[in-house]
Amino acid sequence: MYYNMNDIDVRSSNNFLRKVFLYMILGIAVSFGTGIYLYNYNKILLYTLMNYYPILLIAELVMVLSLTRMLNKMSTNIARILFFAYSLVNGVTLTVIGFIYAPQVIFYAFMITLVIFVVMAIYGYTTQEDLSSYRRFFMVALISLIILSIINIFLKADMLEWVITIAGTVIFTGLIAYDVNRIKWISYQLADGDSEIMEKIGIIGALCLYLDFVNLFSYILGIFGRKK
């Protein structure tokens, strides 16, 4: 499906997209900055927080559900606070990878993820095709990935873990292009719309891209990582 953008306020749309990417970049900076600080400079606090690891995971889930399910009922400031609070808490939980993988491996995985993200984001933005037709495929793929991951918690099968890792990498690579493309078309439809609504949608868009980046990073780490 293709759209004619001759009558669309491209400048307003680009401003919206820049804000989405800014939120996403800040969220990633908060997460990885938190992890680096705790692991390298405050391990006492890190060990204390790790005692509440299950609670932190539940808190992350609650914050994501709150943002996605109750966005219309909350103010823009609350939505913004929830997004950065989630980034902070996720930074704490992600710190466990420092105990599993060598620092240089984490760095390489991050750089590979960054390159893939930039390439797929450019593709998602520049293509004139509406990628929403792939929505059902990505939904089925994500659900299948989650089910397989849960099953492998009990089976602990190395081969299945490898299949999940490869599949996760492919799925989230595609999701980056899909989400950027979806956010682009939404921005065209909302060009010059209500500023508060656009701000909230921008935060949700940033959350989607943030999750795409972090999940892709974790799967790439699983592929290239050498465990300590």
> What is the string of SSEs from the N terminus onward?
HHHHHHHH
Gap from first CA to last CA: 48 Å
Oligomer: single chain
Tally of DSSP helical segments:
8
What would the average pLDDT be, to the nearest integer? Answer: 90
Spatial extent as radius of gyration: 18 Å
From the spread of the alpha carbons, the general shape counts as globular
What would your notes on this structure say?
By secondary structure, the chain is mainly alpha-helical. The chain has 8 helices and no strands. It has helices at residues 10-41, 43-50, 53-69, 76-94, 103-126, 135-155, 158-189, 195-224. The longest helix is centred in the N-terminal third of the chain and has 32 residues, at 10-41. The radius of gyration is 18 Å and the shape is globular. It starts with 9 loop residues before the first helix and ends with a helix.
Salient structural properties:
mainly alpha; 228 residues; disordered N terminus
Brief digest:
By secondary structure, the protein is mainly alpha-helical.
